[in-house]
User: What shape does this take?
Amino acid sequence: MKAASFDYLEAGSAEEAVHLLGEAGSDAVILAGGQTLMPLLALRMATPTVVVDINPADDMAGVGHGEHGIRIGARTRQAQALRDPTVARHLPVLVEALGHVGHYQTRARGTVGGSIALGEPAAEQPAVAVAMGAIVELRSRRGTRMVPAREFYLGPYVTSRADDEVLIAVHFPEWHADSQVVFHEVNRRRGDFALVGLVMLLDIREERVERAGIGWFGMGATPVAAVAAEEALVGRALGEIDPREMARIALAEVAPSDDLHASALYRRTVAERIFERRLRTLTGKIAA
Amino acid sequence: MSLHFIEFELNGQHVEGTAEARRTLLDFLRTDAGCTGPHAGCEHGVCGACTVLVDGAAVRSCLMLAVQANGKVVETVESLASGTDELHPIQQMFKEEFALQCGFCTPGFLMTMVALDRAEPRPDAAEMKEALSGHLCRCTGYQGILRVVDRLAEAGK
Assistant: This one.
């Protein structure tokens, strides 16, 4: 339970982080909140030669409005985002998700960017980013890239971030203030990773779905956008939506696996029921 | 392997020392600073026994590097009681409610409760209980600890 040796470098700003990571080469990692990296180091599942600490980089923390919506700096602590008035007003689904991320003690250090950069397939924040259509801002000495969250995740803990790129911020597009939001997570204990998780946003105008964003987590190798279900919902009147059919469409896009915690059959069964029930409640409530 | 000179405030006292980069704050506190109140349970962020306050926030000291505490204010369970006969009010409640048995997890629970007790706005009993889900206790069945939460929440009203 002791980490292997590494060199530690402190980045006082985003620019310095980009420079240090670029210099350090492919065997370096960024240390943000450390609530996942530190266990990986302790268990020697990660053995980097250089650790670049972005905790002193205050310019990487904070929430603001940008041209792509709400911009959350990568080093913004989860606890800070949870009580931020801009996040509360514009990203209620993220607030709900953050309440499920780890525990009070880990949210005090864990960051929004750290979790989204890591890409744990059963984690909450990457799924919110995927469902909402967020954009990930990556910077290296070669320049800045804006990557849609839906193209960012390639596999468990594997993303399209290059070794020399630092995740600087995440941009969440603004949805209507009265968007209907579902966040549903099934796990055995509070704070655990999800066995099954669903994020759904629907913009509804005159009893018709105008825009839909749906993401699964804990249901495959990455967070998954239920694109076919989104397309099937958009333009449809509430009275014409068959929640059971929609659940089947949304489930056709995921391939959950068996593991120690739950079987694939359990995940599919629970996911289908959650989806159907939550969609039925949501559309019924508005139609009523 | 890099070595770092670090200094920080620990329970009102100035401490300094040299830490290898990989040394956790927990190990530095216990081994270098001789402050053995924070307990090393799982050493990978699951059990909560190592919880301390860093700049007032309850965090897991096994998930922080010692070098990251440089310049910060760290508080451990040692800072709570003012003497052997004078426990901190939350420690006193733990005693009265039988909220501990072996005591291994207790320093962690206490530090989270101190952080909650100081928080503005003050969390209610449900929020305090949610925060305590970050701690494991294998003796008490939690009931005594939850009675402390209820008393603490009541006292804050």
